Amino acid sequence: MRTNHRTFPAIQFATSYLSASSRFHSLCMATAVPENGTTHSPVVDDNVKLGFQRPEMYSEKLSGTAIAYDRHVILCYKTHDLWPSRVESSDSHPLPKLLAGALKARKNDIPVKTLLTICEGREDAGLSDGDVLLFPEMVKYRGLKEPDIISFVDEVVVNRKPWSAGAQETMTGSHIFVCAHSSRDKRCGFCGPILINKFKEETVLRGLDNVSVTACSHVGGHKYAGNLIIYSVRDKKVCGHWFGYVTPNDVPELLDNHIGKGEIIDRIWRGQMGVSAVKKPQKTSEPSLPNGIDLKITEPDQQASSPIQDKENNGGCCQGANGFSCCRDETPSTETETETQTEPEKEVNNAISKFNILTAEWTNYEVFTAAAVIGAVITITVAYSFYKRLR
């Protein structure tokens, strides 16, 4: 016998309830709610917005995107998750602020173009807060304190002598510094820690006890994340190579081919310490370009040494794909943009400005003329009307 749902409302209700319950169950299964009941965005979303699947990956040529420099001062200080966006100028972090200030104060006395970067002071890497690393000297000074900064800058950075207040230690092996400055830029904050873990994993697998991996502060070029620097010795010379668009898949090649064999990996190479030319060197022993805080002396975002440098390195910043901004607190400056313009750009802009002024003046002239004509027509109309009434 066939049941009529209209005759039995209870059966109709039960059928509707079971159908709705089934749809709800299917929806829950589709969203894959974890057993603990919490929900979060899939990891792939962050990877597309901030990580190694960003649309901007590999969109630009990297060679020559870094700033030329000859010496790198790296201060070991706390951990990357504690650094503010501008750690070198933060009142809450006096050691990096005072060191950066002392270097700026002596900028005219520093004989070579020098960069300042902050790296983590981690005991597991043999580094403590206040340790200072110098490249290409491959020298480490232990425990720089605030009262000793003036003497350190004068003796070591300006006069290039051993520091009288501390014994120097010679460093060996290869040293990898990966930008993980999350408060400065979300992309570096996402990519950096993943790359560091991958490097550590691969060095253990290969038994490489002479390779250290450390997080460092902003080195310029947010959109090239992952960004890293590798200092190593090749043919008795210290080389500092900079790489961008680095992904976890590139780590084995960097360890085996770059560190192990001294090869340049063209597709991710940004530049090298000690060479101002954009041209890639033929061998790793012939230095070329990178980034950090220029102590001749400004921060990386304020540098404008090359027309091909992205705005992120000279005051603009970091607009991601599809308008997604990855910068934490970067504010583009009109004044800085003007300073970084080339002469032809300035001439074009001046011509445009003059044209705009002329256009505005001509527009005003047309308005006044039209107003005068309309006024004259109205006057004649009123006069003619008055004249007709008199007749």
Automatic annotation (TrEMBL):
Highest taxon of source: Eukaryota
Stored CDD domains: TRX_Fd_Sucrase
PANTHER family: ACTIN PATCHES DISTAL PROTEIN 1 (PTHR31902), SUCRASE_FERREDOXIN-LIKE FAMILY PROTEIN (PTHR31902:SF10)
Species of provenance: Tagetes erecta (African marigold)
InterPro entries reported in the protein's UniProt record: Aim32/Apd1-like, Thioredoxin-like_sf
Keyword Hydrolase: no
Region (Disordered): 277-296, 328-347
Chain segments annotated as transmembrane: 367-387
Keywords, comma-separated and alphabetical: Membrane, Transmembrane, Transmembrane helix
Name of this chain's protein: Sucrase/ferredoxin-like family protein
